Amino acid sequence: MSDDPSHYALPLFSLIDRGKVDPRQAFPDELAEHLRAWLEGSFGIRALSSKILLAGNEPYLILHEVQEDALAALFSLVDVQGTQLFRYERSDEQTIRLTPLRIKVD
Fold first, then answer.
1. Residue 12's beta-bridge partner residues?
2. Bridge partners of 85?
3. Is 11:78 a contact under the CB 8 Å cutoff?
4. Which of 32, 29, 28, 26 lies closest to 10 in space, CA to CA?
5. Closest to 86 in 3D by CA, of 28, 21, 12, 29
6. What Rg value do the Cα atoms of the chain yield, rounded?
7. CB atoms < 10 A from the CB of 87, how many?
């Protein structure tokens, strides 16, 4: 997975209201799937699968295998939300890397 550029991460609270979830509780897998379906239905951002991951103290929505033709919509969403998009890489079970991408849509 580490060489595949189609895995991305968005800060969870750039998509949902922080007050709607308790970050001390485990995030249900259904939330990630619901958000993935919402992104596809609302914006055409298609990903093969999704999950929520805690990195440090912040939760991220991980989108696996985002379709290339959906990247423009993903970049536009990031720009409109005023948030940061990350490339997600996992080298082993314990090690992940979130690399910030500099997205500016003209």
1. none
2. 101
3. no
4. 32
5. 12
6. 13
7. 15
